[in-house]
Write a structure and sequence with these properties.
There is one protein chain. By secondary structure, the chain is an alpha/beta fold. The protein folds into 2 domains: 34 residues, no CATH class; 138 residues, Ribosomal protein L13 (Ribosomal Protein L13p, Chain: A, Alpha-Beta Complex), CATH 3.90.1180. It contains 5 helices and 8 strands; from the N terminus they run βββαβαββαααββ. The longest helix is centred in the middle third of the chain and has 13 residues.
Amino acid sequence: MPVSFHGSLAAVPASHFVVQGRQAGQIRVKDEVMTTYSPKASEITRAWHVIDAEDLVLGRLCTETARLLRGKHKPTFAPHIDTGDHVVIVNAAKVVLTKNKAEKKGVYRHTGYPGGIKSETYAHLMERDAAEAVRRSVRGMLPHGPLGREQIKKLKVYAGPTHPHTAQNPVSLELPAAKAR
């Protein structure tokens, strides 16, 4: 049976292929094992980023922060391993919510007792504890399990313009797409 190869397999000699049936789609390469790369804990390097949240939209800021915390910006990303970087967010009190969401959107938590649901608006949460509002939004974009709990520990949020992490030499990260219009 004649077998035709397309793409990168055309350069491999025909003697390296085994036809496992009558269909051309059932071809495998002999003597070559394709393995998936999985990063080891010793190979992971963690950088420090600082983001100034002044006049940034909350959701856009949090999606980029979650991407950095998970490590999706790295070529060695693996969904089951924490490969992310540390992120420091300053000026969390100056973050912006669009379309009057600060007064309309609610934040909920439960005490654990029957009828113990507590709610407040984002405007009230932002004036009470702006850093917690940003932290909760990022936490909702991370995995909900042991891996997500490890990743959220690398997030540091401060309501003011200063932070105590200058010894780690964090790289300033600009997010022009997250600016409020």
